[in-house]
Amino acid sequence: MRREDMPYRPNVGAVLFNREGRIFVARRADFPNAEGAAGGWQLPQGGIDADEDPAVAIFRELGEEIGTEKAEILGEHPEWVQYDLPDELIGKALGGKYRGQRQRWFALRFTGEDSDIRLDLDPHPEFDAWRWEDLANLPGLATSFKRDIYAVLAESFARFAVPA
């Protein structure tokens, strides 16, 4: 199938801020040698089920990916954003059915304790490590095809990167 004929996968993403105004980033389990390198670290995100409200989907995704829904929505990026997969991932990533993702992003405040974050609850976890990071560093941690979106989010949600 040609890229042009493939749809975008509907998706939500979370920029999760702690009480100090730092954000949650996680290292992809399939990219374990990326400790300091760009590309292996990302924000929680995932697909939106048919007829699911994005504001509901974001909490479901947090529960599935990081083991907690202890958060409250602070804000929402005002528009959908999208990215295209690089050529080498077309037909392989995202179940081979999509050309990329069309995403709705939320800023959330984490209301739990660090111990509430549990990457080990999923038998096939997406992430194998996590940390709190400065929002300004986010674009430099992203894989190349997500970097522009992360730069937009860093600007859009900068007002939340302060102690609560």
TrEMBL record:
The keyword Hydrolase applies. Its cofactor is Mg(2+); a divalent metal cation. A motif (Nudix box) lies at residues 46-67. It holds the Pfam family NUDIX. Its EC number is 3.6.1.-. Residues 7-155 form the Nudix hydrolase domain. PROSITE patterns: NUDIX, NUDIX_BOX. Keywords: Hydrolase. Signal peptide: none annotated. Belongs to the Nudix hydrolase family. RppH subfamily. This is RNA pyrophosphohydrolase.
